[in-house]
Amino acid sequence: MIPTLETERLRLRPYVLSDFDEYAQMWADPGVVRFIGGKPFDREASWGRFVRQQGMWHYMGFGFFAIEEKATGHFVGEGGFHEARRTISPTIEGTLEAGWALNTAGQGWGYATEAMQAAINWAETAFAGRKMTAIIDPDNQPSLHVAKKLGFTELARTTYLEKPIVVFERG
Known about the structure:
With about 170 residues, the chain is an alpha+beta fold. The chain has one domain: Gcn5-related N-acetyltransferase (GNAT) (Aminopeptidase, 3-Layer(aba) Sandwich). The two termini are about 25 Å apart. α1 crosses α3. The chain has five helices and eight strands, in the order ββαααβββαβαββ. A hairpin with a 2-residue loop joins β7 and β8.
């Protein structure tokens, strides 16, 4: 079962089908994908990513949450953990790979830090002792800042899909 987590301003919850249009808009926005592959997702690619979220929870017991503003009920992004089985060195397979993405309206409000701190708190209980990692484009200053605020430290600099990344680990 996918938990619902609450912070002062946010609700981290399971996705619902009615989230899809806003989800697709978020992933089609060049400002959102600038450091996440660099290419906007078309509606079909967004759908594949959207339904993948349920599968992650089903098979792994963790996944990404839909992030909703409590005051407005608006979908503002996603965050949580996945197991992407990426071909990178050093390997991060078997870890809780943290990730977050916010739509343009949700950026700059501290939502990523707030949401991910709640997700980390949940994961530290649900998956006690399991290493957490993250990969971030070295030019993505906002996400680098979030990772450091969340207690991630740099493990390595490498490439993924022929682009430079920084690999972080936590605790």
